[in-house]
Design a protein that fits this description.
The complex is a heterodimer of chains A (592) and B (240).
Chain A (H helix, E strand, L loop, with lengths): L1 E2 L24 H6 L4 H31 L9 H37 L7 H23 L28 H29 L12 H32 L10 E2 L2 E2 L7 H34 L7 H14 L15 H29 L8 H24 L1 H7 L3 H31 L5 H27 L17 H34 L62 E2 L4
Antiparallel strand pairs in A: 1-4, 2-3
Chain B lengths: L17 H10 L10 H30 L7 H4 L1 E4 L2 E4 L1 H25 L3 H31 L13 H33 L1 H4 L13 H26 L1
Antiparallel strand pairs in B: 1-2
The chains are: A mainly alpha (592), B mainly alpha (240).
């Protein structure tokens, strides 16, 4: 895979694009609020995502309180419970994870890692954030609208989503939810086009695609996927909005509601499920691929070793991205679609395990005999690998039709997807924040608070979700407001539910430590210097820390090597930055 | 940003042709698509994304039409005009299609004159394109009015499946919105061309970047795409 010979191969070509002339802000407002600088936009995206994520965290507390101690809290009635569940899921998946990985890390890291001055269209990039903020505000508005937010479940399945039995179905809830999603998609498209074009057309001299850090590969592939998957959600939202507002029947069959025959007829609820999951399954990898990329860089940097099988890692990302578009109906085994589809979709689903397993083996092989530094980013990266393997293995259960049918709609499913696309990517986000915070602020995050945060979060997440697998296997259904007296659910299951709820409160509290650390360390953290982790990638080689507008001072960087020259034999240091000329070090075959 | 930003400063060292060239471009630094500016790359990728939106709309429509249990209204009769004592099927749609496709022709000519720095001809041809586009939208409004007066609503119609009205208004409405945005876009760019912004290096009001004549071609890409989408809507909705 890697050419061990030293030497940089062909000379680096001349600049094909003249250095850009950036927009220079003239006031505080255009510098920090309506900023066109990708770094500021990244911080805006991340702060908004974390703020709305905290709302979702509190919602998860509330719904767990109901499950652990049913009836103890009078204000959590069945309607509220469903609203909490729905908003928790939707916020976490779309408004936190997608926005934070692509809008947050994408904006911050793509230009810096590629040696660009900014995104290619800073103005559209700015609009992207403001539309995202508007989408979040519309979403939050639904909490205060008559009838409250929608309680249709994060999948918003019709017909129940627009009927009066569902909270928000005949009120404002579902309308605001769908409008917010439409705004989010329009806003994301503006940002997403920027990320893709910047990666394809805006790289530094010497930065070939096969020299990009895997972080950029992950974010890039995820963005391409998002640009192709979000249209399906957009269409589904528009059509359901028409069903609700105009009385069309795209998704509504003839239906009797509260003894009254509705005017709808002839629509197909299954059509919505197909559209939704054509978006929904790629969405899993839109969240996972940036995490894959970032964790690769964290492991390589903190194990002081080049990533094992860089090319395989890149191709695995691309293949996972492509395959994820032909697996969507594995979410619909029990929907009543043609059973023969199940065979096809189970096969494609299980094939995805191959490139995914390649990635996991390569992470472990990168660690193998590495000079592992158990820094906070490394701890989170290791925790990610364990959690992801765990969630991935239960995915093999659920991908098979015959195993999925009895497990469908049980807590097993909840445990599976929280492990694989909830906890695992969040752990990477934490690791990434501990890793890049010094570049963003110039100071290190506090280590003591960091370790406390890590251990409580990691062990706590296991204590929450591991028992849930057991609950699912004995048949405890998901999305039930309360179990009541059920013959097949033993009393011990209830004890387990109480335990899980207490752990949720504890893990949630640990996140408050993290937030405090984020704020406290801006002033009181240890001075970091420009490259505290002694990393090779370009963002650590900026002339100033934090990087200024334009990133690079007068001269743009030139890239001479790949991103993983760690512990090169014979080199004076155990890392060689990408922009350091000279023949020492490894270069991927043919990449120079 | 200067006008030169988008144009290549120097060519890469050496570029093979054919498949080897494709591989060499993708393996190269700086740009995967040589000689493609940022704006043009962005428009192409946006159009790819937009294709998925229209694709989803059309597939949803086809699945509704194929699975409906009540008869689907016959488009030849529904979209006929009563002219000179006889019903001429699809005559309005045929004229609309002809106008929209003609507008692609004038757009292509505008792009040509734009690259020759012929400001007046470029601006006039863009205005003509916008006029064709506006005519198309106007005729669509006429068609909507006619159907609405005949009793077609998003939730039902006198002749059969309710999804006929819903998909018709949704798909033609979404396409008509695209055409309208295109007309506005054309008028703005035509004004800039007429004023000579791309010769004097005048900066954009919002972006404070200098534009260049390539924006005419980028507008053209969008316009041709909207035309192409109409061909599919015409085939799948009216001719089926």
């Amino acid at each position: 895979m890697v050419d061990i010979r030293s030497g940089t191969g062909e000379p680096i070509g001349p600049a094909e694009v003249e250095d850009v002339e950036l927009y220079h802000p003239h006031s505080w407002w255009t510098r920090y609020v309506f900023s066109q600088d990708a770094k500021i936009i990244a911080i805006q995206y991340a702060s908004t995502a974390i703020a709305i994520g905290m709302v979702a965290l509190v919602l998860s507390w509330l719904m767990r309180l109901q499950l652990g101690f049913p009836g103890a809290f009078a204000f959590i009635d069945a309607d509220r419970y469903y609203q909490f569940i729905t908003m928790h899921g939707m916020i976490m998946v779309i408004y936190l994870l997608t926005a934070l990985f692509l809008g947050g890390f994408g904006n911050y890291l793509i230009p810096l890692m590629l040696g660009a001055r900014d995104m290619v269209f800073p103005y559209a990039n700015m609009l992207s954030y403001w539309l995202y903020l508007l989408a979040v505000l519309v979403l939050v508005a639904s909490f205060f609208a008559p009838g409250g937010p929608t309680g249709a479940g994060w999948t918003l399945y019709p017909p129940q989503a627009v009927l009066s039995g569902t909270p928000g179905g005949k009120d404002w809830g579902i309308i605001l939810m769908l409008s917010s999603l439409i705004l989010f998609i329009i806003g994301f498209t503006m940002g997403g086009l920027n990320y893709v074009v910047t990666v394809l057309q805006g790289r530094a001299r010497g930065m070939t695609l096969m020299r990009m850090p895997l972080t950029v590969w992950g974010i890039f592939t995820a963005t391409v996927m998002a640009l192709l998957a979000f249209p399906a959600l957009f269409v589904a939202c528009v059509m359901m909005l028409f069903d609700r507002v105009l009385g069309t029947s795209f998704f509504m069959p003839a239906i009797v509601e509260m003894g009254e025959q509705l005017q709808h007829g002839g629509g197909s609820p299954i059509l919505f499920q197909h559209l939704f999951w054509f978006f929904g399954h790629p969405e899993v990898y839109i969240v996972a691929l940036p995490a894959f990329g970032i964790v690769s860089d964290l492991i390589s940097t903190h194990a002081r070793k080049n990533i094992f099988g860089y090319r395989m890692m890149v191709w695995a990302i691309v293949i996972i991205g492509a395959l994820s578009f032909i697996v969507w109906a594995h979410h619909m085994y029990v929907s009543g679609m043609n059973p023969y589809f199940g065979f096809f979709f189970a096969t494609t689903t299980l094939i995805i395990a191959v490139p995914t397993a390649i990635k996991v083996y390569n992470w472990v092989l990168t660690l193998w005999r590495g000079d592992i530094h158990l820094t906070l980013p490394m701890l989170f990266a290791l925790a990610f690998i364990v959690t992801f393997v765990n969630g991935g293995l239960t995915g093999l259960f659920l991908g098979n039709v015959v195993v999925d049918v009895p497990l469908s709609d049980t807590m097993f499913v909840v445990a599976h997807f929280h492990m694989v696309m909830g906890v695992a990517p969040i752990l990477v986000i934490f690791g990434a924040i501990y890793h890049w915070y010094p570049k963003i602020t110039g100071r290190m995050l506090n280590g003591l608070m960091g370790h406390l945060h890590f251990w409580v979060t990691f062990i706590g997440a296991y204590l929450i979700f591991f028992p849930m697998h057991y609950l699912g296997l004995i048949g405890v259904p998901r999305r039930y407001y309360e179990m009541g007296e059920t013959a097949f659910v033993p009393a011990s299951a209830h004890t387990l539910n109480e335990f899980i709820t207490i752990m949720v409160l504890v893990v949630g509290a640990a996140q408050i430590i993290f937030l405090f650390n984020l704020v406290w360390s801006i002033r009181h953290g240890r001075e970091a210097g420009g490259n505290p982790w002694r990393a090779t990638t370009l963002e650590w080689q900026t002339p100033e820390t934090p990087p200024r507008h334009g990133n690079w001072g007068k001269e743009l960087p030139v890239v001479y090597r790949w991103a993983y020259d760690y512990s090169v034999p014979g080199a004076p240091e155990d890392f060689i930055p990408q922009n350091q000329p000279g023949s020492a070090g490894l270069a991927p075959e043919g990449a120079s | 940003m200067s006008a030169e930003t988008h144009s290549p400063v120097r060519q890469p060292l050496h570029r093979p042709t054919g498949l080897a060239g494709l591989a060499a471009d993708w393996a190269s630094d700086q740009r995967a698509f040589k000689n493609v500016s940022w704006g043009k790359a962005m428009m192409w990728i946006f159009l790819l994304s937009d294709t998925f939106i229209f694709g989803c709309f059309l597939i949803a429509y086809m699945s509704a039409r194929m699975s409906t249990a009540v008869p689907w209204p016959n488009p030849s009769e529904v979209f006929a005009l009563h002219i000179g004592g006889t019903d001429v099927p699809l005559i309005l749609i045929a004229i609309m299609t002809f106008i929209l496709i003609s507008s692609s022709g004038t757009m292509a000519m505008a792009v040509n004159f734009g690259y020759r720095r012929d400001r007046k001809k470029t601006a006039l041809l863009m205005l003509l394109t916008a006029l064709f586009g506006a005519t198309f939208v106007g005729m669509q409004a006429f068609e909507w009015t006619k159907l609405i007066t005949e009793g077609v609503r998003p939730w039902g119609n006198p002749w059969g499946a309710a999804q006929f009205g819903s998909t018709f208004f949704m798909i033609t409405g979404f396409h008509g919105t695209h055409v309208t945005i295109g007309v506005i876009f054309l008028l703005i760019i035509a004004r800039k061309v007429w004023r000579g912004d791309f010769d004097t290096g005048r900066r954009g009001f919002f972006t404070s970047r200098k534009g260049q004549y390539e924006i005419v071609e980028i507008t053209g890409l969008y316009w041709h795409f909207v035309d192409l989408v109409w061909v599919f809507i015409f085939a799948f909705f009216y001719l089926w």
